[in-house]
Amino acid sequence: MKKQKIAIVGLGRVGSVFLEALLSKANQGLEIVAVVEKSDTPGCRLAQAKGIEILDVDGLIGKSGDVDIIFDLTGVSAVRQELREKLLKSTNRHTVIATESIARMIWIFIADTELPDIHAAVGY
């Protein structure tokens, strides 16, 4: 089975629980290959414990040819803009950026609880 290679940007309350849920599905075709987080959060510590690479945005963009989907769960429009611009400049036409709304839809299928709701709608 071809695995979907995933990166998560933002491991605050939303990103941390999303990471945990995705890790529980790792044997079902998902692989978390990298995360981006500047703070010491529970999600960042979990990623480190699981041996997942912790990068900055530039490091992730450098690796993005090996990433199918980047989940931007920061809730910060400037981060999303930076990801889009740097991904475009990298000439990577493979990796897609998924927003919180896509993460929420996926959450419905993989979890029995609600995803924390702390970000304002920032759009694509």
Structure description:
With 124 residues, the protein is of the alpha/beta class. It has five helices and five strands. It has a five-stranded parallel sheet, sandwiched between helices. It is globular and about 40 Å long.
Q: Could you write a compact summary of the structure shown?
A:
The protein is of the alpha/beta class and 124 residues long.
Distance between the termini: 30 Å
The rounded Rg comes to: 13 Å
* Secondary structure tally: strands: 5
* Total DSSP helices: 5
| Major sheet strand order | 3-2-1-4-5
Keyword list:
single chain, five-stranded parallel beta sheet, 124 residues, alpha/beta, globular
Strand and helix map with partners:
Elements: E1 4-9, H1 13-23, E2 30-36, H2 42-49, E3 53-55, H3 57-63, E4 69-72, H4 77-89, E5 96-98, H5 100-110
